[in-house]
Design a protein that fits this description.
Elements lengths: L23 E12 L2 E13 L4 E5 L6 H9 L7 E8 L2 E2 L5 H7 L4 E4 L3 H4 L6 H12 L4 H14 L5 H4 L9 H12 L6 E5 L7 H18 L2 E5 L3 H7 L2 E6 L2 E7 H6 L4 H8 L50 E2 L6 E2 L12 H4 L19 E16 L5 E17 L3 E5 L6 H9 L6 E6 L2 E2 L5 H10 E4 L3 H4 L6 H10 L5 H14 L16 H13 L5 E5 L7 H18 L2 E5 L3 H7 L2 E6 L2 E7 H6 L4 H8 L6 H6 L33 H9 L5 E3 L2 E6 L11
Parallel strand pairs: 3-8, 3-9, 6-7, 7-8, 15-20, 15-21, 18-19, 19-20
Antiparallel strand pairs: 1-2, 1-4, 4-5, 9-10, 10-12, 11-12, 13-14, 13-16, 16-17, 21-22, 22-24, 23-24
Helix pairs in contact: 4-5, 5-7, 7-8, 16-17, 16-18, 17-18, 18-19
Length: about 700
């Protein structure tokens, strides 16, 4: 809404709760941004209602308009944004209000939990001061009363020793602790509406479970309406009452959470659900990606915006963009003219799924060639103090005597919380140098005995795909040069490089004609495919995959996972797959190693570890994974870990997990003494050679 169009309001009083009036009413919201290339239609005719005590999930791919919608409610859009429509809080119009008036509303009536808690907190003020400020701006608190209330809020969100921690700065908190502080600030003034914009995206799964549990508590405490913006449909399944699915700037399906998951009436929703790996089920078929990319909001295609990606699209779909209308289910709306055709159909009946050839029979695992063998690997870093005269004051035990192997054609998933040593482990392997302690053997060659020329040869068989495809690709080079680079520097015949690049691009599903384009011209999923093509250039036998799909939307992620599985089978590759998303690990891995504080605490076949974890940490980790099934998700019992990962510079004595272990609390004094005084070693569990657990009192349980 431009300044000249600002309306005149009858009252400047803040909105108050009214019986029978929804907390939030968004009607025909349109948001446009000017750009050098034209006008970006970021939000197009969104209608949404949130009632008191209700959680509404807002889901969709990146760029669908979710965050712009939430920022419109908060009044935090850039000045050049052109906003039309209506946003009412308790029946009071918010659009067109002055920034001073909205500043009174923000924090008192409407609160927001942002995706990145470090950016949401001021780094130069203590945690306590920031909560006190939020209280005193919107309420009549003395300094002492505000401080007491701040400590009460920190206790409520699970910050230990709040009297001391309130005097700390944001950088002294972990990511999960910072997000707790942001939630404490959000509920400080008992708001009527809480907007949570991807509040758990950057967090470990164990911390995510704690934050989601905390949001449930916050909602119960304040009886606020909640808008949960997320791309994780498992989170929505367990938390939301209703769901709105966004695509190309508008809502394309809206219904009760059970109807959205079990009776979808839009092909896009069906595709999102079909592309999700399930942590509770073994893989029995490839995932179903939604092919293609969302349309440009600068120049939308004629008719239904989803038609270019829709397997059900026909000529009539291109005639006009369908309205959001009632379907055959009460209270269920869909923007699809063919919603009736989706009745009781599963996604595999709608989306064609890729056929991945079965791997050739290899016999037993013991018969397969050992591609990577790690035995007793240790990696430490000195902890230094002083700026001029540095002195060593301690040691960080990043990786502490870990052992595992990977056989030909096998995928090993390496999982655990941030700081457990996953990245240090793979960097120690990729370095191909003599380890501090232990042995690393790659394709039968001990890295401690490699000469410079041998190391170069081994590197051809050991390649890596990084987490962030944009950061790992040189933006100054076209895709052709990026893929051709390892070929040029490893003696590949010059006359065959062009055909090899074309072959590699086709192999990973990229159009060879686009070889002269730059990384910026490709989507996130396409950039990751470029990284995979580059890694495959020298025909390696082992790929180290460091969070290769964590930066991708779920629909794009499915295509990359299918690609990796197909390449593994067709090229006989082996993978060391590092991930924090355990649903992905369940889908792609054959075996899994669970790491905690530099040690492997459980190792075995992925199905056995996921279905019956024996280590209490594995049980906690797996119970925290959201399952995209509302009935199943809401019936589960979470095992919530208390506190954060201990410092690897000062690990606990005995079992490193005993400080957070739920089982430790149930043991008698003699057994506790064993846990605190004796470090458990990785040993066979239940007589199975292929299953190992590092716990004094292992016990298999089911968490799904």
């Amino acid at each position: 809404m431009s300044k000249k169009d600002k309306p005149v309001f009858e009252s400047d009083a803040l909105p108050e709760r009214q019986p029978g009036v929804p907390v939030l009413q968004i009607a025909d919201l349109n948001v446009r941004f000017p750009s050098e290339d034209g006008v970006v239609h970021a939000v197009r005719g969104v209608n949404l209602t949130v009632n008191a005590g209700e959680v509404v999930g807002l889901v969709g791919e990146s760029g669908s308009g979710k965050s712009v919608t939430s920022m419109s409610v908060m009044g935090l859009l850039d000045e050049n944004a052109h906003v039309e429509g209506s946003i009412k809080l308790h029946g009071t119009e918010l659009l067109g209000r002055s920034d001073d008036w909205m500043s009174e509303v923000r924090g008192k009536k409407v609160a927001m939990v942002f995706q990145d808690p470090l950016s949401a907190l001021t780094p130069v003020y203590t945690i306590g001061d920031q909560i006190v400020e939020a209280l005193q701006i919107h309420g009549k608190y003395s300094d002492a009363e505000a401080w007491d209330r701040a400590l009460e809020l920190l206790r409520m969100v699970g910050i230990p020793n709040p009297e001391v921690r309130a005097k700390n700065f944001p950088h002294e908190f972990s990511g999960g602790m910072r997000q707790r502080v942001v939630i404490a600030m959000a509920i400080a003034n008992d708001p009527d509406l809480i907007i949570a914009d991807e509040p758990t995206t950057a967090l470990d799964v164990t911390i995510q479970a704690q934050i989601l549990d905390l949001l449930r508590v916050a909602q119960r405490e304040t009886h606020a309406g909640v808008v949960m913006i997320t791309h994780d449909l498992g989170v929505v399944a367990g938390l939301a009452d209703r769901v709105a699915v966004m695509y190309a700037g508008r809502i394309v399906e809206r219904a009760d959470v059970n109807d959205v998951f079990y009776h979808s009436r839009h092909p896009y929703t069906v595709g999102l659900l079909g592309s999700l790996p399930r942590p509770d089920l073994d893989k029995d078929e490839p995932l179903t990606p939604v092919e293609g990319n969302p349309p440009s909001l600068l120049n939308l295609p004629p008719g239904c915006p989803f038609a270019p990606r829709c397997p059900m699209a026909s000529e009539e779909c291109l005639a006009a963009e369908p309205d959001l209308l009632e379907t055959d289910l009460a209270g269920h709306t869909s923007a699809c003219i063919k919603f009736a055709s989706l009745s009781d159909k599963k996604y595999e009946e709608i989306y064609p799924h890729e056929e991945i050839p079965a791997a050739a029979e290899q016999g037993t695992r013991e018969d397969a060639e050992v591609i990577l063998h790690v035995d007793g690997l240790v990696k430490t870093y000195p902890l230094m103090k002083g700026s001029v005269f540095k002195r060593r004051v301690g040691t960080v035990h990043a990786v502490d005597h870990i052992s595992f192997d990977i056989r030909a054609g096998e995928t090993l998933g390496l999982v655990g919380e941030s700081g457990c040593g996953k990245t240090t482990t793979i960097m120690s392997i990729l370095e191909l140098a003599k380890p501090e302690e232990g042995r690393v053997v790659v394709l039968g060659k001990d890295t401690a005995e490699l000469s410079k020329s041998d190391r170069k040869l081994v590197r051809q068989d050991l390649q890596v795909v990084f987490q962030d495809p944009m950061a790992s690709l040189d933006p100054r080079l076209p895709i052709y040069d990026i893929i051709a680079e390892p070929l040029k520097y490893n003696g590949y015949p010059k006359a065959r490089i062009a055909s090899r690049v074309e072959e590699l691009m086709a192999l990973v599903g990229l159009e060879p004609a686009h070889a002269n384009r730059y990384p910026r011209n490709f989507s996130g999923g396409q950039k990751q495919r470029v990284g995979i093509a580059r890694a495959l250039a020298l025909e390696p036998r082992l790929l180290v995959l460091d969070e290769p799909v964590s930066a991708l939307d779920v629909s794009i992620q499915a295509g990359v996972l299918n690609l990796l599985e197909r390449l593994r089978v067709e090229m006989g590759l082996s993978y060391l797959f590092v991930a924090h998303d355990l649903s992905v690990v369940r889908h792609i891995a054959h075996r899994v190693a669970v790491m905690y504080l530099g040690r492997i605490v459980e190792l075995g076949p992925v199905g056995e570890v996921f279905d019956h974890p024996e280590h209490p940490y594995s049980q906690s980790l797996l119970s925290a994974i959201p399952v995209p099934d509302p009935v199943k998700e809401r019936a589960r019992n979470r095992i919530l870990l208390q506190g954060d990962l201990p410092s690897p510079a000062n690990p606990p004595s005995g079992c490193p997990f005993h400080t957070r272990c739920p089982k430790f609390q149930t043991l008698d004094e003699a057994d506790r003494a064993r846990c605190t005084g004796e470090t458990p070693l990785l040993a066979s569990a239940g007589g199975q050679v292929d299953r190992q657990v590092a716990c004094h009192f292992p016990e298999g349980v089911s968490v799904f």
